[in-house]
Amino acid sequence: MSDPLRLRYPAQHPSPDPVPTEGAPAPIPSGTSTRAASTMPGVDPSTPTELDRARALMHQQQARSAAFAPVRALFHDPAWDILLGLFIAYEEGKPLTIDTVRATTGLSEVAVRRWLLTLEHRGLITCWPQTATLSERSLGLTNDALTRMLQFLQKI
Predict the structure, then answer these.
(1) Could you read off the pLDDT of 34-87 as tens digits, one per residue?
(2) Cβ atoms 104, 88 nearer than 8 A
(3) CA–centroid distance for 76 within its chain
(4) Rounded Cα–Cα distance for residues 125 and 69 (Å)
(5) Which of 92, 89, 103, 105 minimizes the C-alpha distance to 138?
(6) C-alpha torsion 100→104→105→106, nearest 10
(7) Residue 145: which of 103, 53, 55, 82 has the closest Cα?
(8) Above 60 in pLDDT, residue 109?
(9) CA–CA separation, 124 vs 79, rounded Å?
(10) pLDDT recorded at residue 86
(11) For residue 90, is pLDDT > 50?
(12) What does pTM read for this prediction?
């Protein structure tokens, strides 16, 4: 990896409460993304960014779901779909909510909540502000999950 990993959330945090410090990404200036890296010296602009790769993976999953609609459940991977969606939202500078996750994954509210609690318990996502109900919280990747996702996307 030639570039330092970008661990941040957008400056326009939706809540007056601070992002939890334990396990949550450290904020850096808004507007910094993988796209900015492609204009840096020594970075080949024709090489797809991690965001490009994540979007391609998401597009492949959506195309697969459409092609195999009658048996879509056989290929469903909710945890991965949620992590991939959170990474894309992170790179685009917009944290997700449960409603957005439900819309992008097609999961029921119960299933989304179950997966979010599992991912949070495993230290892969964080939710804020803690004072809000789960459905009102913003969701994001932890530093560990973001680092792992970036390392994975850089290898494919």
Answers:
(1) 444 444 556 567 789 999 999 999 999 889 988 998 998 888 899 999 999 999
(2) no
(3) 17
(4) 29
(5) 89
(6) 90
(7) 82
(8) yes
(9) 10
(10) 94
(11) yes
(12) 0.71
3-state secondary structure at position 148: helix
Please state, as a whole number, how many other Cβ atoms lie within 10 Å of the Cβ of residue 118.
14
Token pair, residue 131, equals: 């004072």
Q: Which residue has the higher pLDDT, 145 or 107?
A: 145
Query: How far, in Å, are 3, 30, 40, 70 from residue 81 at the CA level?
Result: 26, 25, 30, 19
Question: How do residues 18-40 score in pLDDT, each as one tens digit?
Answer: 444 444 444 433 444 444 444 45
At 27 the three-state DSSP class reads coil
Q: At what angle do helices 78-92 and 50-67 cross, to 10 degrees?
A: 140
Supply 69's token pair: 């609609």
In the chain, alpha helices (H): 34-37, 50-67, 78-92, 98-105, 109-121, 143-155
Say how many C-beta atoms besides its own lie within 10 A of residue 156's C-beta. Answer: 10
Contact between residue 34 and residue 49 where contact means Cβ atoms under 8 Å apart: yes
Distance separating alpha carbons of residues 43 and 107, to the nearest angstrom = 38
3-class DSSP assignment, residue 41: coil
